[in-house]
Amino acid sequence: MRVTGVARESGWPGLSVSTTLTNPSTRPGLRLPGRVTLAAGSEDVPVRHIRLGLVATAEPDDPRSPRRLVQYHQVPIAGRFVVPAGRRRAVDFALPLPWETPVTIFGGVPLISLRTGLRTEVSLDPDLDQGAMVPVFVHPLPIQQHILAALETLGFAMRQAGLVQGRLPGVAQTLPVHQRLGYWVGPLYAGPITELEVIFVTNSAGLEVLIWLDRRLSLTGISHQSISRFRIWHAGMEQRDWVATVDGWLREAINRHAAAASNAHWSARITESAHVSRHPDAPVAPGYGLGGTAGGGGIGGGGGGGDGT
Q1: C-beta of residue 213 within 8 angstroms of C-beta of residue 283
Q2: For a surface tag, which of 10, 214, 230, 284 has the fewest beta carbons within 10 Å of its beta carbon?
Q3: Chain segment 241-296, per-residue pLDDT in tens
Q4: CA 201 – CA 53 distance, rounded (Å)
Q5: Are the C-beta atoms of 38 and 49 separated by less than 8 Å?
Q6: Other beta carbons less than 10 A from residue 227's beta carbon
């Protein structure tokens, strides 16, 4: 039986399982410390293994299908052992979070409809018993914080945040899900676009920023979408003018979007900056990723500092 969850009483006769976190607030690329405690009843309890998994609600590839709970990351923390009758056994852990772990908190406020939980799985025999989860609050990395704050400064307002199952084509992605942040378009950029989505694909070296643009004309039914990709590194991020950098990305992405539109007369170019800006970074060519630097085994351990700096 696999007893999963964190309720004080697991439901398995003679065994209770609880999981506690030292601090449920964390960031991608860090380690999440905590303890799993097992208490046996009147008989010895043989345990096959203990695993921890990160779980969140995600949208499937097919937009017509309902959202569902997805375990997007799992790590074993203990092998075989026995909990003696009437005794407790504590297993300490420091779960390495993937660099691509979805952000659930921005500015101290939970993002809309996006939560992550830590599931504990204790395997006793092949059956499965589902349980509750411990909430985990994932704050943005400093580099993500700079980009999100710059978007706010430029007039963009976040309207939704969610996870989507599936991999992005041509992107060095380690998780089976990716996070999308949808924005109401800032007034200075309105006209050429009506919708904006931002996707971060992060690793220990830096991140790729995917800017997804859409221009819809409701009266005619015309719609045009485009994606621009930019790369940025953790190193040297404190020396950047982030409002200028993000403004440059947006202008470059909007102008490429307009140039590719089949009806270019209604997808106007941005001719002047919304902020005094240097020339934007060149977009990443399709198929280019930041693979090979995010650590082994998909657990985001990676080299460099734990906070990505």
Answers
A1: no
A2: 214
A3: 999 999 999 988 888 876 655 554 444 555 444 443 434 444 444 443 333 223 32
A4: 20
A5: no
A6: 18
